[in-house]
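Bench notes, afternoon.
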Amino acid sequence: MLKIITWNINGYRAITGQNPSKRFDKISRDNKLFDFIYSQNPDIICLQETKADKEQIDESLRIPIGYFAYYHSCERKKGYSGVVTFTKIKPEKVNYKVGIEKFDVEGRLVETHFKDFILLNIYFPKGYTDSERLDYKMDFYEYIYKHLTKISKVNKNIIVSGDYNTAHNPIDLARPDENENTSGFLQIERDKLDKLVKMGYTDCFRHFIKEEGHYTWWSQRGRARENNIGWRIDYHFSSNSLKNKLKNCIQMPEIHGSDHCPVVLEIN
């Protein structure tokens, strides 16, 4: 069985203790990331929003023991965006680009090709209502989908893991009525996830868990996490060719270190 985790860590240097992190009035320099990885022992872990070039990270903190590391950092702006995939299984091929410069320079993709499947670790852009970044986000979805169609000809078994920055349905956020005009729950954004489903992909968490109250991101204001006023915006989507191999998919809101929580996929 294969165990794949996705987690938006909201700053690699903070979660590994290179920079001090603060929760309420408590300051910590613990390496929460490596502690989590060693306790969970995933085959692959996909991290988003690293906010650092590899060279900015202390050498001892760059790669957990027993893993290969594939970083893609933002070239456009320091301390912004960025993804990294740690994997015990060496991929046959690694790709970092969809071929569109405005997307590729923001460090949003690590695509790893294995013998039996392709895994995409993606940090989808945030959108802001009435701004060019919303258009950027919509375009990014479209180019990723074109890319998925292209690579599906190489291998039909595909997993797309990461922070999608969109809550798909009303069940996926605590206050849908209040946020229908908020980016992250706009209909045009939600339509993009509908399109992914129509393309033949399964929301792995919803394959197992149907009820409300499960979220992966909480505002850092007003003790939203303690009150579970959150959004589910982090996903594993798998191609339907893998649907009968899905074993389990869980979220881990009890794991701190970021304003997001990890999402764990187990697949045969």
